[in-house]
Amino acid sequence: MIGPDPFPLSSPPGPQVRPVHDPFHGDLLEVSMGPHHPSTHGVFRMMVTLDGETVVKLKPVFGYLHRNHEKIGENTSYLGSMPYTDRLDYLCSMTNNWAYALAVEKLAGQAVPERAEYLRVILAELTRLLNHTCLAGFLLQDCGASGTPLMYAFREREKILDLFESLSGSRMMCNYQRFGGCRVDPPAGWLEAARTVAGNYGQFLDEYEALLTGNEILMARTQGVGVLPGPLAVSAGVTGPMLRAAGVAYDLRKVDGYGVYPRFEFRVPLGAHGDTYDRYMVRVLEMRESIGILRQALRDIPGGPIMDPKARLRGFRAKPGEVYSRIEGPKGEIGFYLISEGGPNPYRYRVRPPSLINLTILEDLCLGQSIADTVVILGSIDIVLGEVDR
Amino acid sequence: METLEQIRDRLLARFPGSAVALIVNLGPAAQHSLLVDGSHGRAVAEFLRDDPALRLEFCSNMSGVDWPAREVVETAVVAAPDPAGGPPRSVEQKVKRLVPGYLEAVYHLFSIELRHGPVVLRLRTANRTDQVTLPSLTPVWRSCEFQEREAFDLFGIIFEGHPDLRRILMWDEFKDHPMRKDYVEPDDYEWEPTPHGDVLAKARKHYPAGAGAPAAAQGEPRP
Q1: Model confidence pLDDT, tens digit, residues A82-103
Q2: Which terminus of chain A, N or C, has fewer Cβ atoms within 10 Å?
Q3: Does B28 sit within 8 Å of A319, measured CB to CB?
């Protein structure tokens, strides 16, 4: 297996599947999964070496969607990068907007009015609902439950997207946050509609969980699969629901307390085993907490302006300095590292992509598992390739 | 958490001969950073991770930064002799100074156990051309694995001791480092030599310019 090949092939190996001869253990098989594979959630490729059906090596290959987002950010004005952040993790444009707006606000020392802070929390929690619902649907799809769970998830997602559309004009590429507030005040009746969506979401979750959480096939496919130990998760920089499923209580909404999160009462669900089932369960429980935050935020949201009157958008410049700022996105810690030299563009614009860094442990999770499990494990990591490749 | 000055003093006491400096951030965020020399980078990182008062076990973000050589104008006070024979006067003089370029690796460290951070750690290369090696901190924090590969790919920093240093976002045959400030985009990313260019070059040799060359031969091969 390891070392020089005792029986070299007479013909050169093909690019896709290469048998590696070994007289005792049979052949190893190298399979290229992706980049165009329905289970890879985009153009992502795994070079998997298999012994029978067991994974003995796995190397992720990135870059198929690379457009050098960071270079674009350095050649664009501060405000001009805002719509580009929508395209990072295109399921969670609202949290990407918030992470970037918060970084620029810290860089420039910009204050945000209260109403905008509440709106940001509402939008971030709606995004979390949306993302986790989609994840649950995709995870079940990856397990082979073709269609039904995903369509249930997408039905609910559509209601949140309708809210986003009536607020920002766009379903997915919202481009809504600004440095010092939000772009427009919600239209009449929007908060009422949001209350209805948030109020009905618990019922949907009950229905969804009745269908799935106790499902024997889901348990068989996910329990004990892809176990991530807590210390490895911390060392590998894994964040978000994956880290908490590994039993590490680290939620930036609690730790950093950015925005107005310290005013809300919510719990941080933790997993006990760190397996794929825990990662599914933590997300479902997080959705229930998000509904609670939404209820509190929609009850307490004050009136008033939505933009700081001193905020400057066009011709925005920040004093020389740098900042690293992060928020708890649905997929994990999304951070922005900005260096300003005083010019109209950031000197350095760096995105800390949770999807990419959560993939660091993909090989560790998949070793010793079967090839069918890699699909489920990858699904439970929750990646969006727009963010992985940037 | 202790202040960065205290951490710096402890590092200097713990690693004699190391050069640890404090870089002050003048912006409103005031996230100051520790600049560590490359030869002690790995040991300092391990110390920051394992020290019981710091426990910076979570390296959240790793980023490359390119700083090309630049001219800074500094005001210096110099003594100028008085032509009238009096005592020399002190005159303000603007002095141009060339700051040599370097590449920088910036690490943002947090402690999950003690809930503090960020501590910003910076390592700098000697220049931007031939001495671009820094110690890899992937053995200290696994989270740097892909991020250091990205800095290698896009900035050209070579991380010594990285287990798998390959390009990550650009393709393997790519030559340049796109995130550098002096990077020039090619006109056509997908250009590759074809026999067509050779044919045109041959035709140009056979029909020198102005000798009634056929129209097709005057076409320029693409660069």
Answers
A1: 999 999 888 889 999 999 999 9
A2: N
A3: yes
Q: How many CB atoms lie within 10 A of CB A176?
A: 23
CB–CB of B61 and A350 under 8 A?
Answer: yes
pLDDT beyond 70 at B200: yes
Contacts of A62 in chain B (CB under 8 A): 146, 168-169
Residue of B30, B61, B142 lying closest to A236 (CB–CB): B142
Give ∠ CA A120-A356-B129 in degrees, rounded to 5: 115
Asked if residue A51 has pLDDT above 90, the reply is: no
Instruction: Please give the helix or strand (H or E) that residue B7 lies within, else none.
Output: helix B4-14
What size, in residues, is chain B? 223
User: Domain span at residue B198?
Assistant: 184-214
Determine the longest span between alpha carbons in chain B, in angstroms: 84
pTM for this prediction: 0.84
Q: Do the chains contact at B141 and A235, CB–CB below 8 Å?
A: yes
As assigned by CATH, the class of the A70-389 domain is mainly alpha
d(CA A155, CA A22): 51
Q: With respect to residue B56, please indicate whether it lies within any of the assigned structural domains.
A: yes
Residues A195-218 pLDDT 10s: 999 999 989 889 888 888 888 888
ipTM score here? Answer: 0.84
The residues facing A47 across adjacent strands are A32, A59
B65/A339 Cβ within 8 A: yes
Distance CA A13, CA A36 (A): 22
Regarding whether B107 and B40 lie in a shared domain, the answer is yes
CATH at B48: 3.30.460.80
The CA-based angle A375-A379-A382, given to 5 degrees, is: 150
